[in-house]
Amino acid sequence: MTDAPRSPVIVRAAGVDDLPAITALYAREVAEGVATYETQAPDATTMAERWRAITAQGYPYLVAELDGRLAGYAYASSYRTRAGYRWTVEDTVYVDAGCTGRGVGRALLEALIRACEALGYRQMIAVVGDRHNAASIALHKRHGFHIVGTFEGIGWKHGRWLDGVQMQRALGDGAASEPTA
User: Taking Cα atoms as reference points, which of 80, 142, 78 lies closest to residue 116?
Assistant: First the structure.
């Protein structure tokens, strides 16, 4: 018996039509998971405002499709607002629970890294919700991130204290040369 062929993961820029599915995916993570420390799921209007704010600043915001439906999304945003951090971005990746293990996170993170390198960013930071989020930590490690620190017990959700894991990887030349712009 052979496995059925897997559908390819299609990664593209997120658009307005993707926002209902993005909002629903994020709402499930808020309600059930610990990748975000938000405890009340934002409504569709708030999610649209967040998407507009990120894309208006020129950051990439991507979605992954699998079997004709939204399977995940990822975006880069400012790591910190101070001018000296302008070459560093923070990545965010969410994969629908029904699509894990099918390469969605990999496809999204690879595309996000490429997009950020093309934009001239030099460092990417991952802020992983909880040290027990093995899938996210492993995904980031496979893509060149290393753990630079763990903040113990900084978030409270689902009746327990959660750690925050900080991971980092260089983009392009990283800190080996000065930025070009």
Answer: 78
Question: The domain spanning residue 122 has which CATH number?
Answer: 3.40.630.30
What single-letter amino acid sits at 23? T
Residue 2 counted as domain residue: no
How many domains does the chain fold into?
A: 1
pTM value?
Answer: 0.93
**How open is the CA angle 154-158-162, to the nearest 5 degrees?**
25
pLDDT bucket at 77, cuts 50 / 70 / 90: very high
Structural domain contains residue 85? yes
Q: Would you tell me how many other CB atoms lie within 10 Å of the CB of residue 53?
A: 11
With beta carbons less than 8 A apart as the criterion, state whether 49 and 23 touch.
no
Please report whether residue 60 resides in a domain. yes
HSE, CB side, 13 Å, CA atoms: give it for residue 25. 23
Side by side, which strands form the sheet with 10-13?
A: 10-13, 61-66, 69-78, 88-95, 123-129, 160-170, 146-157
pLDDT at site 179: 78
**For tokens 């880069």, what's the residue?**
76
* Alpha carbon distance 51, 160 (integer Å): 30
User: Would residue 1 count as lying in a domain?
Assistant: no
